[in-house]
Amino acid sequence: MTSPIRPGGSMPSTGDTGGTASPETVVELSTLTDTFRAVPTLELRSDLRNPIRSPLSRRIATLGDVREAIIQDFIGGQLREGGRGAQVVQQLGSFPGYRHPDRPLRQWDPDQKPDFNVIGEAEVILRRLQPMMGWDESTYQANLERARNGMVYFNQAIETPLGPIPFKMGILDTQLWRDGVFYFDMRASLLPYDQTYRFLGTESAPSTISQTEFHERHRQVEAEMMGRTIESFIWGSGFSAEELMQRRYRHNFGFYEAYRVFDWFKGHKQRAKYQRTSDGDIVPQILVPGIRRWLEQNPNRLEIRHPELGAIGPDQITEGNLSEIQFQWQSSRWSRLMRWPERLMEFAKINSQNWAQTRLNIASNKTSRP
Q: Exposure pattern of 107-116 as b/e (b: 16+ CB <10 Å)?
């Protein structure tokens, strides 16, 4: 993986060049510089041997252009074979181009690199990646076996007229997605749905995952994840929506991945990020669908109270009034406490599954192109 450099910084060295670009590379870079002189430079180390390419005709001037080069030119253009291969792209991470596609490149810190998860037939995706990543057949087969057991991740870079853009990509097989992979579901349940997913099917090559199927499963996952957090309120007679929102984000890291000690407080940071968007606080927008569905699927478990409306139904919870809502348990504390051993066993199982997935992440990423 090549390293970005900052304006005025030195070019990082590599083992095969000793930090000095070859004459051929200098000529190619000079040609690109002359061709795209009016376009701001990314000032990244360039390695034109990288076979993952975006067409030189694509103009890279904004963060949205960076996003489209990866999604359209690479994932959609090179990781699909007819209607098979990549189906749905999940956009995540700190890359600001997801929410601000018109932002110019000069306002981008390349350390905030794009992250994507791709759902599709893993065998097709990995086979098409094989020549790009330089894998021999044994490495391909090893990654395919990993992909049959969970997600696989790779650090990559796509060559553009302005140089290579680094990004990270996870792959989740369609059947595993349908069966449920907690590691993926856990993260997906706290992302803004409308701003996160891209569907790659076309009229001539339709997707094997319909948007209706994807949306329905996503909403059910939101409800199940929310239910785990709701069930954790054992001791008191009730709790506020504010307490629920705080705990829901905290659970995603401090509870479900307890072995990642340094990420215990990451949930607070993630919530704060979504509270300070250009559209205002979008946390209620993310959480309300899951709260409503869980309450509808579990009637008579909680009384929902609004300070002005009194007792209300799940359908009356909105993004605007969520922060005012109070929930009161309709069951006894003892009955809730009796379910605590079951919750502890679930806690251990989830952490074990996520630790196994983390090991798959590490093993697959070791095969990323250097």
A: ebebeebbbb
Residue the block writes with tokens 């009384």: 303
- Collapsing DSSP to helix, strand or coil, 160 comes out as strand
In degrees rounded to 5, what are phi and psi of residue 9?
Answer: -85, 170
Nearest Cα neighbor of 166 from 154, 158, 176 is 158
**Spatial contact of 154 and 362, defined as CB atoms under 8 Å apart:** no
pTM for the model: 0.82
Q: How far apart are CA 13 and CA 92, in angstroms?
A: 30
Look-up: residue for tokens 């007819």? 82
Residues composing the chain: 370
Closest CA to 143 of 115, 120, 171, 175: 171
CA distances 113 to 50, 92, 95, 164, 169, Å, are 18, 10, 5, 12, 11
Q: CA-to-CA distance for 157 and 180, rounded, in angstroms?
A: 29
What span, in angstroms and rounded, lies between the C-alpha atoms of 67 and 96? 10
Q: Rounded to whole angstroms, what are the CA distances from 174 to 70, 182, 197?
A: 21, 14, 15
Tens of pLDDT, residue by residue, the chain (370 residues) = 433 323 333 333 333 334 444 444 433 433 333 333 333 334 444 343 445 666 666 788 999 999 999 999 899 999 999 889 999 999 998 899 998 999 998 888 888 889 999 999 999 999 999 988 889 999 999 999 999 999 999 998 888 777 788 899 999 999 999 999 999 999 899 999 988 999 999 888 899 999 999 999 999 999 999 999 999 999 889 999 999 999 999 988 888 888 888 788 888 888 888 888 877 889 999 999 999 999 999 999 999 999 999 999 999 999 999 999 999 999 888 888 898 899 889 999 999 999 999 999 999 999 886 5
Helix (H, G, I), strand (E, B) or coil at 352: helix
CA dihedral 255, 111, 119, 191 (to 10 degrees): 50
The amino acid at residue 234 is I
